[in-house]
Design brief:
The complex is a heterodimer of chains A (115) and B (110).
Chain A (H helix, E strand, L loop, with lengths): L3 E4 L2 E4 L5 E7 L5 E7 L6 E6 L6 E2 L10 E5 L2 E6 L8 E8 L8 E2 L3 E5 L1
Parallel strand pairs in A: 2-11
Antiparallel strand pairs in A: 1-3, 3-8, 4-5, 4-9, 5-6, 7-8, 9-10, 9-11
Chain B lengths: L3 E4 L2 E5 L4 E7 L6 E6 L6 E6 L5 E4 L2 E5 L5 E6 L8 E8 L5 E3 L3 E6 L1
Parallel strand pairs in B: 2-11
Antiparallel strand pairs in B: 1-3, 3-8, 4-5, 4-9, 6-7, 7-8, 9-10, 9-11
Classes of the chains: A mainly beta (115), B mainly beta (110).
Chain lengths: 115, 110
């Protein structure tokens, strides 16, 4: 199994600023992902964080808005840039130990409010 | 693109009644996973089904995977307050990511 520490757990930010969310996994994992979840909604995949290379973004998400780093097999960051109130949401990082056909582990989530 | 549909969106039950949520994929799945998200929490893995027609039980929870490996269900017998939350199914996508259903929120009537 894997335990993921995600921080901050919540933040209130001014529009136009940026917030970086960090996820630390207690073991080496193959895959790491970043999701956004609106209250009462399902999970929307933002991107797959690739170790040592550029993240793979889903349709509707771009690197300039959501830059992602993954310098090693246990750590990743997501930055929400030039925030607007529409970015208010819960952001979740997730990891899989072996990739295909294995369970996903999640961080505790970051509840972001942009004012 | 690949989709996983899940119904119903909500289910209100009296404590002690049963609860069922259904998932249907647009494509054949190699496996399907189920997760539970408590209010204010993050998704937590419950189980993975791999074989056609597979049925697995965890205490009061029964999980089924269809013969065609395109549909699945989760049934909870005699719900308890601890069962409250949203239940998601998820199937593997083309690039190691998971394709998530919309979730079914289990609400216990007071």
């Amino acid at each position: 199994s894997a335990v993921i520490s995600q921080k901050p757990s919540r933040d209130i930010c001014q529009r136009g600023t940026s917030l970086t969310i960090q996820c630390q996994v207690d073991s080496q994992v193959t895959m790491m992902f970043w999701y956004r979840q609106q209250p009462g909604q399902s999970l929307t995949l933002i991107a797959t964080a690739n170790q040592g290379s550029e993240a793979t973004y889903e349709s509707g998400f771009v690197i300039d808005k959501f830059p992602i780093s993954r310098p090693n097999l246990t750590f990743s960051t997501l930055t929400v840039s030039n925030m607007s109130p529409e970015d208010s949401s819960i952001y979740l990082c997730s990891a899989m130990i072996q990739g295909l056909n294995t369970e996903a582990f999640f961080g505790q989530g970051t509840r972001l409010t942009v004012v | 693109g690949q989709q996983v549909m899940q119904i119903p969106q909500y289910q209100h039950v009296q404590e002690g009644e049963d609860f069922t949520t259904y998932c249907n994929s647009s494509t054949t799945l190699s496996n399907i996973q189920w997760y539970k998200q408590r209010p204010g929490g993050h998704p937590v893995f419950l189980i993975q089904l791999v074989k056609s027609g597979e049925v697995k039980k965890q205490k009061r929870l029964t999980f089924q995977f269809g013969e065609a490996k395109k549909n699945s269900s989760l049934h909870i017998t005699a719900t308890q307050t601890t069962d409250v939350g949203t239940y998601f199914c998820a199937g593997p996508g083309s690039n190691y990511q998971l394709i998530w259903g919309a979730g079914t929120k289990l609400i216990i009537k007071p």
